[in-house]
Specification:
homodimer; 216 residues; Rossmann fold; 2 domains; seven-stranded mixed sheet; two-stranded antiparallel ribbon; 9 helices
Chain lengths: 216, 216
Amino acid sequence: MNIAIVLYDRFTALDAIGPYEVLSRIPGARATFLAGQAGPVCTDNGMLTILAERELAELPEPDVVVVPGGPGEVAARAGGEVLAWLREADRTSTWTTSVCTGSLILAAAGLLDGKRATSHWLAMEELARLGATPVDERVVFDGKLVTAAGVSAGIDMGLALAGEIAGEDVAKAIQLGIEYDPQPPFDAGSPAKAPAEIVALLRGASRFSERDELIV
Amino acid sequence: MNIAIVLYDRFTALDAIGPYEVLSRIPGARATFLAGQAGPVCTDNGMLTILAERELAELPEPDVVVVPGGPGEVAARAGGEVLAWLREADRTSTWTTSVCTGSLILAAAGLLDGKRATSHWLAMEELARLGATPVDERVVFDGKLVTAAGVSAGIDMGLALAGEIAGEDVAKAIQLGIEYDPQPPFDAGSPAKAPAEIVALLRGASRFSERDELIV
């Protein structure tokens, strides 16, 4: 099973590494990091560089596609090779997936039209604007299109997907292997749970804040 | 605040990326990936390469040290530059931390002698053998030494540490930013919760299994 993880400049590392850490543990899985060009790709904060092992064109028919989010999604969905490759790859994939604002890229490629999907909580209006039907759930399946909420939700998506691909026992073995028994020290991981002033702070600082006003 | 994330051949990606994704979001933080030599470092499964921006000697006095685990820890703690660098860095660090079997490296460097610490659930006996006092908790603080359980526990550790470093509001803002509201689809993330046959499967396949027999 070939898993294609699509990188682009200024992606968010955990969006990609969460699903990678889970899905690469499925027996027989081969995860490959791809980008428009093979070579170094820098994350959103400029502090981490991951190597894209191959360029997109070298892996045209992966079984599973994973698209991370991050501020670089704006450029990625403005056009170019990622969108074109995604449209082609989705024709033959078994699963086409995203984490966080990666769903905006899938939507821009036309792959989420009318489909139930999720994204980072700050990007839900943008997701609707791009033609998807936003669903406020952590992991959303609509046929073979699977989308996860912000950043860390890719781990939950990876496990749900592992269960579909290889069965619950394999998924549970992977969960135990990565000791995924989360115990966050605070309960502020969603806008419904975080203090209102912190939600407002992030909303105001977001690159979606201006757009939200334009939309509303 | 300088955060040094120590890489070595065959580390586990999420061990490093979980704390990185949290700690790099603290205002003023600068995360740097380091290794014995600057350049590409391959993860445990050979499917991912991360660039070490600098060699260890170039960052002798970081404020925060993060040591990931992974099968490569065996070679890393067998001797060499990582252990020597850790001993020096710990003299001036504010926090010296590990995720998963990274605690075995800290212990081999002599930094956990008699200290309360944790590790991957499969490595707890080995941790004791190396002089630490194993504690079955997800994140363990003993003074400035902070250790996390297996792989995914580095996210919880990162948030706890962010709270200590920058205050709870900053930690909660980071948690909301990465939408860390975990909802695992299965409840198998610890040996106490996973089905017994899956626990036995992993225990039998573990590189610690033979050693466990030798110890017991």
